[in-house]
Write a sequence for this structure.
């Protein structure tokens, strides 16, 4: 019911996940990330894969062993699809034999793709090709461009409904989390939300405390300066 791309951006160390589906609120359960890695769990989704997978990555378990552990304990594994990337850019994935065609996965260094109920393998191929080709774009724009390429090759064969993007850095909260739960053109709406986020939200998010000993920035003149020049402080998003 879904296709997704999971990446670790080598320029910034940020993790990114983009996902789209002909299913309501795909962003609610599919994407999961922490400073240790990023996980997408889909098809007949097992929501426990996300937090359990991130916990294993935090313990230093290699991606292939994380996947083997999660699906090995799951009697419904043949109906599941799972893929992930760790902090070193290593990836691993699983597509159960009972996932609805077309279903499969692809990977390159630092990037993993998986999908089911797709128009065909060209959806993932086009998504990956565009991701690799558009290194000129900042992370979120690059993810959206990649998903648009996959949609142009048929995307979810049932149609469109929802989409989401999750970006995670070293902080314990997401750098950016955008969800379109129900929309006739979810990628268009996702891109609109991204434009709105760049106006004030992303510059403002740059002033947050990063940990318990960091007070962050609370000088309002500095905050307004950052908002007035939104791309100066976080150009990679």
């Amino acid at each position: 019911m879904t296709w997704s791309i999971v990446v670790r951006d080598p320029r910034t160390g940020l993790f990114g996940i983009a996902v789209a589906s002909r299913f309501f609120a795909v962003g609610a359960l599919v994407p999961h990330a922490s400073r240790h890695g990023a996980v997408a769990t889909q098809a007949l989704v097992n929501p426990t894969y996300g937090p359990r997978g991130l916990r294993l990555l935090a313990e230093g378990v290699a991606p292939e062993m994380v996947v083997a552990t999660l699906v090995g304990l799951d009697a419904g594994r043949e109906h599941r699809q799972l893929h992930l990337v760790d902090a070193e850019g290593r990836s691993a994935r699983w597509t159960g034999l009972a996932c609805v065609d077309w279903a499969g996965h692809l990977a390159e260094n630092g990037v993993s793709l998986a999908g089911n109920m797709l128009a065909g393998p060209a959806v993932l191929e086009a998504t990956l090709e565009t991701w690799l080709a558009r290194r000129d774009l900042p992370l979120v724009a690059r993810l959206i461009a990649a998903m648009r390429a996959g949609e142009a090759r048929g995307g979810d064969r049932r149609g469109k409904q929802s989409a989401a993007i999750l970006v995670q850095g070293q902080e314990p909260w997401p750098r950016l989390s955008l969800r379109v739960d129900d929309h006739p053109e979810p990628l268009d709406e996702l891109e609109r939300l991204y434009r709105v986020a760049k106006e004030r939200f992303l510059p403002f998010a740059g002033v947050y405390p990063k940990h318990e000993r960091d007070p962050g920035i609370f000088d309002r003149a500095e905050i307004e300066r950052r908002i007035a020049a939104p791309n100066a402080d976080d150009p990679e998003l």
Notes: The CA atoms of residues 50 and 168 lie 14 Å apart. The chain has one domain: 2-186.
